[in-house]
Amino acid sequence: MNEKILKHFLEFGTYTYPGLYQEKLKNDLPDDIREIGLLVRKNFIHRTTLAARNTDTNADLKFGDMTKVPWWRQPEDDILVTAAAMLAELYRRDKRGFVNDREPKDKLVLTCRFVAIMVASILKSKGIPARVRAGNAPYFDMGEELGDVSTDHWINQYWSEQENRWITIDVDGSLSLDQNFDPYDMPDGKFDFPANAWLGIRAGKIEPQHFHNAGGYRGKIVVVWSLFYDFHSLMNSEIIYLHGTKYGDPKKFDNLTEEDFKKIDGLARLMQKPDENFDKLVKIWETDKDFRLLTGSLL
């Protein structure tokens, strides 16, 4: 692997920078990837788990007794958007920080993006090149109403020097899989990376409605959102759900032209092999306002 690329994925971005907690992550947490993942998972509650209480994937209380979570606790995705913020709140609620026996009332209520950011922050702190990846996961049971869909999801990849390859892991979903595979070394094809999904849709090989977003959207726009989340994540800028490019505006998406789609096609082709095309992706990042400048909230 190109040393420049590995150096890039050792660097912290705004969202993965752990601030003054970097030495704690490096020295106080385990070095084993599975142990790190389980520890992170034991300190976070997904909003769907909180909503379902002690049913479905939490029927065995593996995520903790949701009746012990204060009634007023809500999803904190729009509040704790950086690793430093998450860590500060973990220590505020329990001065021990990351612990296996954190009380449910003291856990953070955050979704997959935040788990992936925290995992990347920990690995980078330990000197392991890591990156957040956004896309869609077809390996969760979404219920009869939605059926067989691939839902929006965020995961990680880390560089194994020993094996000389990126290893794909899904910490957030590791305890809730609907299929039998190792979430700490995911086989190729299990996760729907958005570049492949988008180009498959454009070629008429994949049905757009297969892709689902937790906000209730389905179709091409869901993949476009994931594509730009993934692009920004590859540039160490793991933008929040509220932010996107002009191409992802639901009010304008149906009016995009074939020229717009072809421009997105070009980005997707490069992102199919992000390491081989790294310099080209960086050039787009540094020069293309349509792909770099964000909209949403106050932007």
Radius of gyration: 19 Å
SSE order in H/E notation? HHHEHHEHEEEHEHHHH
Structural class of the helix and strand makeup? alpha/beta
Q: State the separation between the terminal residues, measured CA to CA.
A: 36 Å
Helix content: 25-40%
The tally of beta strands, per DSSP, is 6
Taking the sheet with the most strands, its summary is: 4 strands, mixed
Percent of residues in β-strands: 5-15%
Mean pLDDT: 95
Question: What is the tally of helical segments?
Answer: 11
Description of the structure:
By secondary structure, the chain is an alpha/beta fold. The chain is 35% helix and 10% strand. The protein has 11 helices and 6 strands. Strands 3, 4, 5 and 6 form a 4-stranded mixed β-sheet that branches. Strands 1-2 form a two-stranded parallel ribbon. α2 (22-28) packs across α6 (112-125), α7 (194-202) packs antiparallel against α8 and α7 (194-202) packs across α9 (258-271). The mean pLDDT is 95.
Topology:
Elements lengths: L2 H6 L13 H7 L4 H9 L2 E2 L1 H6 L30 H11 L14 E2 L2 H14 L4 E8 L12 E11 L4 E5 L24 H9 L8 E2 L7 H15 L23 H14 L6 H10 L1 H4 L7
Question: Which characteristics define this entry?
Answer:
globular, 299 residues, 11 helices, 10% strand, alpha/beta
